[in-house]
Amino acid sequence: MPADTLTRVFSALADPTRRDMVARLAEGDATVNQLAEPYRMSLQAVYKHLKVLEEAGVVSRPPGPQPRRVHLETEVFDEMDAWIERYRRRAEERYTRLDALLAGMRDDEKKRNDERGEQPK
C-alpha cells in the first residue's frame, strides 16, 4: 500500500464518527439512512463522512438508484495490517534483544554477588 494511500486511510479513520461507521459496517452493509440513524447530524454531514471513507478506499457504494448500500472494503484493512505488522515485528525483536541483555546483566550481577558472598538486593 503506497504511503499516500496509507495517509488517506489513517486520516479517514482519525475521526471517531467515521471509525464508528466502519465498526457498524463490519457487521454488514447498510444504507446511508441506516448509518445516519444514531448520529445527531444532518444527512449531508453523514454523506461527507462517507465521501472521506470512499476516497480513502475504506468503503464503496455501487452505482445506481438510491438507496445504495454502503460496503466495507476489507482489503484496505489487510494492507494496513501488513504495514502495522512489519513494525510490530521490529519492535518485538528489539524488546526480545533488550530482555536478553537485561537477563544477561542480572546473571552477571548474580555471579559477582555469589563470588563476593553477598546477598541479592
Helix content: 55-70%
Query: What is the average per-residue confidence, as pLDDT, rounded to a whole number?
Result: 90
How many E-type strands? 3
Structural class: mainly alpha
Contiguous runs where pLDDT drops below 50 for at least 5 residues: none
Query: Which geometry do the CA atoms define?
Result: elongated
- What is Rg? 25 Å
Number of helical elements:
5
Care to describe what's here?
By secondary structure, this protein is mainly α. It is 67% helix and 7% strand. It contains five helices and three strands, in the order ααβααββα. A hairpin with an 8-residue loop joins β2 and β3. The longest helix is centred in the last third of the chain and has 43 residues, at 74-116. It is elongated, with a radius of gyration of 25 Å. It starts with a helix and ends in a 5-residue tail after the last helix. The mean pLDDT is 90.
From the structure above, extract its key features.
mainly alpha, 121 residues, 7% strand, single chain, 67% helix, three-stranded antiparallel β-sheet
Topology:
Elements: H1 3-12, H2 16-25, E1 30-31, H3 32-36, H4 43-55, E2 59-60, E3 69-72, H5 74-116
Antiparallel strand pairs: 1-3, 2-3
